[in-house]
Write a structure and sequence with these properties.
The protein is mainly alpha-helical. Helices cover 58% and strands 6% of the residues. It is built from 5 helices and 2 strands. A two-stranded antiparallel sheet has the order 1-2. The model is unreliable at 1-7 (pLDDT under 50).
């Protein structure tokens, strides 16, 4: 039984594997990725580092993946990207609401302009005073 285990272990170490690993740049630290790449290279593992990868092209290279499903995925991804661009363009075209200014006459007779926030705060303060006095 021990000799069978040793044989399997030797068979595994003599095999070569081609492994592709994909990372999202927003979820992994660049320093950690570089450290892992360097450690693999120091161990004798050949590492190819590619900055940008076309996911559709990569899917097409995987044996057993239905090409028609990849084509449908590509179409739907393009449509979603176009919709996102349209949304961003529409959102950028709408100007932000302007700040409202309300003219208030003070008892002394001078006119002052206040923002709605300041007016709302003043009204809330007066209401709180009235409620506490009651």
């Amino acid at each position: 039984m021990t000799s069978c285990f040793v044989y399997r272990r030797l068979a595994q170490t003599d095999s070569a594997y081609d492994v592709d690993v994909f990372f999202d740049s927003t979820t992994i630290d660049e320093t950690a990725l570089t450290s892992a790449k360097d450690a693999l290279e120091q161990s004798g593992v050949a590492v190819e580092y590619v900055e940008e990868v076309d996911p559709v092209a990569e899917l097409k290279t995987i044996p057993g993946v239905d090409v028609s499903n990849v084509a449908r995925f590509e179409t739907e991804a393009d449509e979603a990207a176009d919709a996102a661009k349209d949304y961003e363009a529409a959102a950028a075209a709408v100007p932000p609401p302007s700040t409202l200014e309300i003219e208030i006459k003070s008892p002394a007779g001078s006119n002052t302009k206040r923002s709605p926030f300041a007016v709302g705060f003043a009204v809330a303060a007066v209401l709180a005073h009235v409620l506490l006095a009651a």
